[in-house]
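Entry for the shared binder. Reason: the reviewer on the internal report wants the predicted structure included alongside the sequence.
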Amino acid sequence: MLREIRLKTVQIDNTDIDIIQQLQYDGRAPFTRIASELGISEGTVRRRVRRLTECGLLQIVGIVEPQYLGWDAAGMIGVTVQSGQIDAVAYQIAQFPEVSYLMMVSGEFDLMVEVYCRDIGHFVSFLSQELQQVPGVVHTRTFMILKMHKLSYRWGQAESSAKVHGSRLRPRDPEADSVR
């Protein structure tokens, strides 16, 4: 709860948004390059990134596709929760290392949980011995992820990498690949 309160008091401006946009496409971009592209000093970029990370608004992390590290069973799980228990159940579910995303949603479910497990056996064990045992969980529905077509952490104000870096890269066309 403290983090939510701190985030609400953070003031950001267009320069912060521009810096964030650059970092969404390359989290390791040198501050000197960001500064040059935005027409500001390297020190300004450094101070603003430090402020945004310290307040919890910005995280710069290494992202890897889980299957390359042996986490081959992924799924989305819709969770129905006992009335009045959403926050308590969400807190418990958030503690599991298999959980990568946890969201309160509207519609058929109260929570959606993205899970990565080593294999199907691990997934079944997690589902039956961990998730479904959380007090307040009434029902779950599992959707196994068979193939990932897009994984992106770029959203909002972020422009395409072609615009940011001036390239003419295009998304891969599966029909063109099948002709070859």
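Summary line for the report: Residues 1-6, 160-173, 176-180 have pLDDT under 50 and may be disordered.
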